[in-house]
Structure to design on (533 residues):
């Protein structure tokens, strides 16, 4: 049996398998929320505090990022920020600078212990023209704390698209969608004067999402298809993480994902508010959605175990009516009433989802084999582990580490792809050195992983092969003599190498565990039997 695998193939297989796993309970992951707070100029302190931070049956919204809509001015941002910090502690939250556009605007709030804010970009300029989008589109860039690379960064497109009705409402939404997708493909924004704004395209390697009030009634609308549809260039394509493309308007089958209107002006019958994700956030590796993007959201319960995505407050009992308060199974009466009050007569429920942060690869920096006799076995254990910060994110909020090896000439490592969860012990792997020729040996071992900050980690390898004849190579237990216990020990290690995918029993040094290793060892043992070491 030869232990040889395609690392690339298996890494893809593990990533695909991760997509099929059931979402874990939300514990110290990165929670991203979006909320159209309805013409917000400040105040509503008690209701906002309750809606965001209060707990019911162990559940609370308590996000790490809030992408908010319909803010009037910087004073409104300051007021909302003070509410967040009053509930969480001074300095816990920060906000992006407010940009005053042609209408109400987006606002971005983040928990500083979890997220680094990288900047704001205007990717679509709004105006009152019926041939243009009505409001600016902002992209807020963030990166989880503890990470440094583009591959660990997210561009968050905040949208409040043109409402249904009026002149060219569908066309105005389509314009905004086209600009968002173009930007996600790396294209620079163009301002109202026709000037290309250099450096405004989404940086290479970023993941991305769109969050906010899309004012969408059906997935067949052209502007929505522009976001989620397959095109010649799918770099900027978005995906619905709850796989629920439908005609949502006034359709009771989708009552668990409706977000408008909890205050009852129009009744709960629309999924206007959504979060859509890039392919890189649903591929089961690195920075990733906690949930199964291949399974549609439940049509029978709000508490879908396959998804962390929630329309906060909607337990499915409020179709075409005011949000249920008494008996609300998701949030209870107090939070439900606060959500209604925040709407100020007409409005939206918040939506959130959870993301795992990427794994971090760690190992020793070097392996020294020392002096080894000519043609004698030479192996050393390499510990590899997931060094994700469990103190900040906990193990459940960090993706598994997937990795493989590539050893330079003269050295060998196990084939295949390996996995390590955060917060556990290390995986031990047997690394071997070729001892068929005497002299000093040096090389490298590449650990190739889905750690975005260090996709290739290099371990230095060195040793010396002496010209001393291998008179004791059959002394497997290193007790100074050739005895039957050496055969027993080798057979045990040979069997373990087969099942454990290590090379510790690779006696013929061909980088594979085969019956020839067993035969060669027995012959060597017979030739050396009775000798001393």
């Amino acid at each position: 049996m030869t232990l040889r695998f395609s690392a690339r193939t298996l890494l893809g297989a593990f990533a695909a398998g991760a997509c099929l796993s059931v979402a874990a309970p939300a514990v110290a992951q990165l929670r991203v929320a979006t909320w159209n707070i309805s013409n917000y100029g400040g105040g509503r302190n008690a209701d906002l505090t309750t809606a965001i931070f209060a707990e019911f049956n162990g559940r609370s919204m308590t996000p790490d990022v809030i992408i908010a809509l319909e803010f009037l001015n910087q004073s409104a941002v300051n007021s909302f920020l003070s509410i967040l910090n009053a509930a969480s502690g001074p300095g816990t939250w920060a906000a992006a600078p407010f940009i005053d556009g042609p209408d109400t605007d987006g606002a971005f709030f983040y928990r500083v212990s979890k997220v680094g804010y990288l900047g704001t970009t205007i990717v679509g300029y709004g105006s009152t023209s019926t041939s243009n989008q009505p409001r600016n589109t902002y992209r807020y860039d963030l990166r989880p704390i503890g990470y440094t690379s583009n591959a660990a960064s997210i561009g968050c497109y905040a949208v409040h698209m043109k409402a249904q009705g009026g002149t060219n409402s569908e066309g105005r939404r389509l314009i905004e969608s086209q600009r968002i997708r173009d930007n996600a493909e790396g294209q620079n924004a163009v301002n109202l004067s026709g000037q290309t704004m250099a450096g405004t395209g989404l940086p290479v390697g970023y993941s991305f999402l769109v969050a906010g009030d899309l004012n969408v009634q059906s997935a067949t609308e052209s502007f929505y298809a522009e976001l989620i549809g397959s095109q010649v260039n799918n770099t900027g394509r978005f995906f619905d993480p709850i796989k629920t493309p439908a005609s949502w308007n006034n359709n009771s089958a989708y009552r668990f994902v409706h977000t408008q209107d909890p205050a009852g002006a129009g009744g709960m019958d629309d999924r206007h508010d959504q979060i859509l994700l890039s392919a890189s956030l649903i591929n089961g590796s690195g920075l990733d959605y906690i949930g199964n993007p291949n399974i549609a959201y439940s049509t029978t319960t709000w508490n879908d175990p396959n998804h962390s995505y929630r329309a906060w407050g909607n337990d499915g009992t409020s179709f075409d009516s005011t949000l249920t308060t008494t008996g609300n199974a998701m949030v209870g009466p107090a939070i439900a009433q606060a959500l209604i009050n925040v709407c100020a007569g007409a409005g939206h429920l918040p939506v959130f989802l959870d993301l795992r942060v990427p794994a971090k690869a760690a190992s020793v920096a070097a392996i020294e084999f020392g002096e080894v006799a000519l043609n004698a076995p030479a192996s050393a254990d390499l510990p590899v582990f997931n060094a994700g910060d469990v103190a900040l994110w906990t193990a459940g909020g960090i993706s598994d580490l997937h990795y493989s090896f590539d050893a330079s000439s003269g050295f060998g490592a196990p084939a295949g792809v390996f996995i390590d969860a955060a917060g556990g012990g290390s995986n031990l792997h047997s690394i071997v050195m070729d001892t068929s020729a005497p002299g000093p040996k040096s090389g490298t071992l590449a650990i190739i992983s889905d750690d975005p900050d260090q996709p290739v980690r290099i371990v230095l390898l060195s040793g010396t092969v002496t010209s001393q004849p291998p008179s004791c190579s059959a002394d497997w237990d290193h007790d100074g003599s050739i005895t039957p216990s050496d055969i027993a020990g080798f057979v045990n290690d040979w069997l373990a190498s087969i099942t454990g995918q290590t090379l510790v029993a690779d006696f013929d040094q061909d980088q594979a565990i085969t019956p020839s290793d067993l035969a060669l060892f027995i012959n060597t043992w017979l030739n050396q039997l009775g000798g001393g070491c």
Q: What stands out?
A: The longest helix spans residues 484-500. Residues 1-27 have pLDDT under 50 and may be disordered.
